[in-house]
Amino acid sequence: MAKRPSQKGDSTRAVHGGERERRYGDAVTTPIFQTSTFVFQDTEELCAYQEGRLERDEYGRYGNPTWRAVEEKIAELEGAESAVLFASGMAAATTTFLALLPKGGHLVTTSDCYRRTRQFCEEYLTKLDVETTVIEPANTEKLAEALRDDTTLFFTESPTNPYLRVIDVAEAARVARARGARVMIDSTFATPVNQCPLEDGADLVIHSATKYLGGHNDLLAGVVAGPKAVVDPIREAVGVLGAILDAHPAWLLLRGLKTLALRMERHNATAQRVAEWLEAHPRVRRVWYPGLASHPDHAMAARQMRGFGGVVTFELDADFDATVRFVDGCRLPHLAPSLGGVESLIEMPATMSYWDKTPQQRAAYGITDSLVRFSCGIEDADDLLADLSQSLDAA
Ligand SMILES: *Cc1c(COP(=O)(O)O)cnc(C)c1O
What we know:
Bound molecules: pyridoxal-5'-phosphate
Distance between the termini: 37 Å
């Protein structure tokens, strides 16, 4: 397993990051700053702020002490100089693309990808004449072929959704940098506990904080982290585009982050057990989990990651109807989109994200009728296995 280079442990940073240096009213926790604007004593103070002699808050769209604490905590966890918070993972991705891509520019992304991100590239970036080249995931040779002189960005998830493909971040960064392109990794499925793409050479890391960072299936948020010089124009863009996070969910995220390392330990352990159990089950055709030796990127993942995450994807040896019976027969995991929370969630990509696609289109995306994505919560693994077992038998 990869080792984390920096000094303080994940839990210490998760608890204290961004908060220890500041105290509000002697409180141990950071309050919710439920305010839309901030008061200046007088015009002299206002001018000092405008001239950059004074750092402080001005108006709610440009900053709030609650979200600054979250940004600094995530920056510490990612080993980043700077981080910026958004209203959702999609807001983080779209604002970042708009901030970094020039008109008529070029972007490289992968086929195994969050569906709405791909839709943004196909339906919105094309309005700015930005071209997107889609390559197969986790393939740095295909990346080298796809890069052009005008490529600004290579964007990929790692691990990807739903097949959990893992890219060699250091190699992707080397290949992209040689052509003047930046690398942005969507690390939502991993979290900074399991991997730090910036330490491996990526320029930016992005998360749907809705998932593990928040961790409780109770908020939507997004974050981008990286060097200050790269993050600053993105921060400027969120001030213009306005997809900011309100102080209350920011505070829930701050609270959720404190247990991130603890939760990931459980998610990683449970998913490994579930993946091994499923792989040995006669009614399961195939399992995708980077912690299994059978996964195509297992060796890469073992070098680069410190844990393999809480999502297990598998294909039943069954048709569509029997797969539906299995999913509906599970009593502990909820049938719901999303992942990364304390409650286990289960879904069939064919009836969830790819519902409106024809079977042929689904096949082109690699989504089969008996594919299931299971997000392990923090329930006891024995209970989850017993539930999966009864539902597999009944289906
Ligand atoms: C959920 C998700 C997103 C979108 O994030 P939201 O917070 O729902 O907007 C983007 N990328 C990945 C990998 C995701 O899982």
